[in-house]
Write a structure and sequence with these properties.
By secondary structure, the chain is mainly alpha-helical. Helix content is 74%, strand content 0%. Helix 2 crosses helix 3. The longest helix has 38 residues, at 178-215. The protein is elongated and about 75 Å long. The relative contact order is 0.14.
Length: 292
């Protein structure tokens, strides 16, 4: 059974994969179609209740909330994928420098990682936003760099452990360069740990974008975002509480799914965890129920 089959066999993995796929598909569809123009409202349709034709209702300017959430999914996908790419590049580079180079380079990188990891990601993003102005690129790079450092700190010890394995030494004896050894042997063996950290960084990127947009440091007003929508609607929570539910639910489900997907992927790609999970499920299947 390959890792895809093991992932789909897990109820948690299946739920997480479906939610992430729905968000990605919604973002793709919104490029070509939305029920209404998300930037144009109608005074006549202000605060319409959920129903036809506004399935999730409208806001105070008559904009369709479903269309806003669909377009906001594009922002979410852009930020989470962009932050994941930046975190991957930064994390792998720092981990490789901290594990595969000479001693003084390793120690320098370790000190640098310890210094950078002391700064919260959201604080870094707010500091950069205060200097360069709020934008999605600020969120992408601040979260990517912040969690790239986290990835490096967790992955570096694993790389050093795998580096002492017999198959790595055999590859080196056969003439593999350090770069080839890294790609062929080291990275595949630390992938389970790396995947969890990467999914966490993508989930935090979604939260960071929503939080920074809520505070005015993220997406611009002309760019629909779940955080901006939440900031606009929360002022009316006492009068129209249902309208606030939809963007909050979208953020919560997306962050939860990304975290669960990382855990499920780790179990699916790590043979030892998969074997333990199979044995546990088999043991639970043979435990007799309690007879009252």
């Amino acid at each position: 059974m390959n890792w895809r089959s093991r992932l789909w066999a897990s109820r948690i993995g299946r739920f997480a994969a479906i939610v992430v796929a729905v968000v990605a598909l919604t973002a793709l569809i919104s490029l070509f179609w939305t029920p209404f123009d998300p930037l144009i409202g109608s005074i006549r349709d202000r605060w319409a209740a959920p129903g036809w034709p506004h399935l999730l209702g409208t806001d105070g300017t008559g904009r369709d909330i479903l269309s806003l959430i669909m377009v906001g999914a594009r922002t979410t996908v852009f930020v989470s994928v962009g932050a994941g790419i930046v975190a991957t590049l930064v994390g792998i580079a720092l981990a490789a420098l901290g594990a595969l180079t000479t001693r003084w380079v390793r120690e320098t990188v370790a000190v640098l990682v310890d210094i950078l990891i002391a700064f919260p990601v959201l604080l870094i993003a707010m500091m950069i936003s205060a200097v360069w102005g709020g934008s999605l690129w600020v969120v992408v790079f601040s979260v990517g760099i912040g969690f790239g450092v986290n990835i490096a700190r967790v992955t570096r010890p694993e790389l050093r452990r795998v580096q002492r394995s017999d198959f790595v030494l055999a590859g080196r004896a056969n003439g593999l360069t350090p770069g080839e050894n890294l790609v062929q042997h080291l990275l595949p063996n630390v992938a389970p740990v790396f995947i969890v950290q990467l999914s966490w960084s993508m989930a935090v990127a979604v939260l960071a974008e929503a939080g920074l947009s809520y505070l005015g440091f993220g997406a611009s007003v002309s760019q629909p975002s779940w955080g901006l929508l939440l900031a606009d609607l929360q002022r009316y929570i006492g009068v129209h509480p249902l309208s606030v539910l939809w963007p909050g639910l979208a953020i919560t489900l997306t962050v939860l799914a990304l975290n669960l997907l990382g855990d499920a992927l780790r179990e699916a790609t790590d043979p030892t965890l998969s074997a333990r999970g199979s044995k546990r499920r088999a043991a639970e299947a043979h435990v007799p129920g309690v007879v009252s």
